[in-house]
Fold:
Amino acid sequence: MSSAFNNLNNIDLSKIPDAANLKFGIAVSKWNEEITNNLLNGCIDLLKSKGVLDENIIISQVPGSFELIYASKKLQMQDVNSVIAIGSVIRGETMHFDFICNATSSGIKDLNVSGKCPVIFCVLTDDNIQQSIDRSGGKYGNKGSEAAIAAIEMALI
Structure:
């Protein structure tokens, strides 16, 4: 988790394996698009810095975080080495936050248990917009970059 004690800006990229021969799927939510676009850009930038070609990155946009499950399942079927699910859910005044966060994390967990390749959970579940900004390219780095690292490492297992 990115925080003051684990800042993503401090990642040593030389320790991340080369990924030039790997293919990735990215499912990205359009809900809270400013945040998810920042996460997507961080993810793509990291993948490209490790040798991944544009044609080896498949992006599927979906309306919200709940829909990441289906898109990730479809991406698993496209001969990718790993899938990254990118979303942002910000707590509101109702329990909707809890339902979406629980269902999304459980659905992605299920895909990891039974799917063809790993699915990396890059869904920010923050209490407010400032926390999302801080973790999507702000003072704590970019969680999208961290998800790309996890995707590379998991693809190589």
Observations:
- The chain has five helices and six strands.
- Residues 96-114 form the longest helix (19 residues).
